[in-house]
Structure formats: C-alpha cells, structure tokens
Amino acid sequence: MTAPAARRPEALTLATAAFAVATIGLAAVMLTVFPATAELTRGFRTPVLAFELALSEQDLAFLAGPGEAAARARARMDAGHRWDTVFPFAYGGFVALLLVQLARRHERLMWLGVPFALATIPTDLWENAILVDITAALGRGDPAAPLLPALYVATWLKWGVLAVALGVLAIGYLRKRARITGALAATSAGAIGLTWMARANGALAELMTVLLFAFFLAAAVRSLAAVWRR
Questions:
Q1: pTM here?
Q2: Using CA atoms, how far apart are residues 33 and 62, in angstroms rounded to an integer?
Q3: 95-115: buried (b, 16+ CB within 10 Å) or exposed (e) per residue?
Q4: pLDDT score for 165
Q5: Residue 65 class from Cβ within 10 Å (0-12 exposed, 13-18 middle, 19+ buried)?
Q6: Largest Cα–Cα distance in the chain?
C-alpha cells in the first residue's frame, strides 16, 4: 500500500506565509536604501524614523540645505519611500491575515482588528506622500514647517491603527497560548502608545521599532512553520 499523500497547506496559510516573506524581505531592502546615519535630534539614531516623527524644522536639519550630504540624504529618503509605497500592502495585509486566521479558529473578536490592519495601508501612503513633499520643499530651499502638522496627523494615524490591530492580535495569540508572539504584539502596541504620549521621544521611538521588528519576525517564523508542518 502506498503512503497517504501529505496534506497541502490551505490557501489562507500559504497567503499568510507569502505576506510574511514580503514583509520581512521589503523591510530588509528598505534598510539598505534609506540613509543609515545622520546627525539627528531628540535621541534618534535612525534617520527615517527621525524624519517621520519630526516636530520642527530643527528635526529636519540633516535633510535641509544645498550641501552634498543633505542632497544625498534627501535622494535616499525618496528612494526608500518609493519602496514604501509597496511595503504597507505587505505588512498591513500580513497583520490582517494573521487576524483572519485567528478569527477562523473561533476567536471572533479578531474580526474587529481587520479593518484597523487594513487602514495602515492608506494612512502609510498618505504619510509617504507628505514626506516626499517635505524633501521636495527642502530641496527647493522652502520651509517645511507648513507640512509638519499634516505629517503628525498622518504618521500617528498610521501608528495608531497599527497599535489597535496589534492589541487585538495580542489577545488572540495569548488566548491560544502563543505567548512569545502575543507578548511581542502587546508590547509593540504599548510602545506605540507610549511613544505618542512622550511626544515622539527618540529613545522610545527606537525601542518601538525594535519591538515591532521582533514581532514581525516572530510572526513570520510562525507563519512559515505552519506551512512546513503541513
């Protein structure tokens, strides 16, 4: 008698794994495209994060002026944000699919998180458009201050809807005893809230991104393992 054929992973499992690979892959590419170092304010170490969370013209000094270093930093920011027009579809879709997976396992609360996960896509694209407008203004020698209020709203809408989606996801994972992934989702959501309350403190913002990367990496490993187990 022949051995029974191995069970194929269901479409949702495969789709989630594909979005996991896209999320981690695009994040890795963007790390090499965005500027790696600059003289930053308020305790920041990552230029693109300092750019997103800029509150004043002083925070944008590393991108301003006619000098070669500033021009190169602006060009690399724009190149990174071209990749970032695709990235929201990857990570927003990934979080949404993780929520759908749990919802289909009798965790109906997870459906509440899906719209918030998908809302990261338009809010991130809006933020990107403003960031590109800012580099264009700085390249012309124009003030960027008029664009900063809109950047603040777009950025924190993006982070806010992601925090809600991750908070809902954390509940589902912890109920399913996926303690590591659940704890990372919960602490990432909490770090986003703390960073907002601290007016984008640089050290907190850097910690927030480390926690988010750890969550996405853990969730990606978990998703790929689910395909392998089938």
A1: 0.94
A2: 17
A3: bbbbbbbbbeeebeebeebbe
A4: 98
A5: middle
A6: 77
